[in-house]
Amino acid sequence: MLETNKTYRIFISAAEPSADAHCAGLITALRKGGYDIEFVGVGGPKMASAGCRLLETTAGKAAMIYKAFRHVLHFYRLIKRITGFLKSNKVDLVIVCDSPAFNFHVAKAAKKAGIKTLFYVAPQLWAWAGWRIGKLRKYCDKLCCILPFEQDWFCQRGIDAVFVGNPLFDEVPMSSIGIDLARHGRKYADFEPTNARFALMPGSRAAEIDSLWLPMQQIATQLKQKYPTVTFVTVAVDAEREKILKAAQIAGFVCQYTIDSVSDTADAADFAIVASGSATLQVAAVGCPMVIIYQSSRILWHLIGRWLVKLKYLSLVNILSDKELVPEFMPYFSSTEPIAESIERLLEDRDRLSQISGELIKLAEPLAKKKASEQVAELIVEMLH
Which residues of 275-288 are buried (b: 16+ CB within 10 A; e: fewer)? Predict the structure, then answer.
């Protein structure tokens, strides 16, 4: 138990909308425990609503690969500000969530200030940049893993790591959308491609939308040419993202827009086209077959990316399956025709769609068994004590 006559201060760093949501859930879980904790940090509106005093709003500014360089100066100044705050204020614990390129600097500042640091969402060093394990070992006091195999991988390399479940399923519990994880998946016995409803999920980051929204519409247009009566729905994380998507809609493309959860949107669809990332796990949990895409700079991929990434598969769904359970185009550089053709082949194979659906649900089951925010809250109380 924590001391009843003491107020604790926790600094939280989140740079993306998903991390903002994860940390907001964590703050809520800690408040339910009745502890006297002050939360301060950098993040987004969900953290603020949960009761965190923000030094600066960062969620939404995070970018991917080469597009991150445009934000370097901004984040450099922010890191200096955070460093100054940690030096001049009494802080009992620092929590950094995801975005390792940014949060390694925050963790380093915490270490210099003599503050323990908890990493919420393990950096995917098992996929690439494994040489950073020494840096993680130096700056991390406790590592919270959200994929089952990560705990053993990091523990074997000298990191105090624990699998806490996946926070995606805290925010959208399976019970709220009527999903029974023990079921065998959807049945496509009576499925007709001409009646298909597609979910388009270009991601929540501005960089993802910039690179993936146009090709997703091109893929949808090609599918519409072959199956004239299919329909499309696009999910946006908030009203601002919805405006961005609508403003970039190509002429002649017809689509419904929704500000909803990924899980609910996928649950109502027959097939999904998804940006690579955590959303693929939410789509998997409702047994919705999908294709996963990600676009990158051809030059940077061949110069750097292909030499850094050592995995056989690049999407989380296929990594956890240890096979190509769903088609992944990561990265693709120009033509969307191979992606559309891959989808068309799956639409014509009812048995394969049913099989994929069942395997996706089984894959998601261990991720949803634990309530991550509650697990991490317990670890935090232990660290504060």
Answer: bbbbbbbbbbbbbb
> Which of 269, 257, 204 is closest to 230 using CA atoms?
269
Cα separation, 351 vs 234, in Å, equals 26
pTM of the model: 0.82
Residue 230 pairs in a beta bridge with none
Question: Among the residues of 322-349, which ranges form H helices?
Answer: 337-347
Q: Residue holding tokens 């499925």?
A: 191
- Which domains does the chain show, CATH number per domain? 8-165+370-384 (3.40.50.2000), 175-368 (3.40.50.2000)
* ∠ CA 362-200-168, rounded to 5°: 45
Two tokens at 331? 């990265």
Exposure on the CB side of residue 61, measured as CA atoms within 13 A: 18
pLDDT digits (tens, 9 = 90+) for 190-239: 999 999 999 999 988 778 888 899 999 999 999 999 999 999 999 998 89
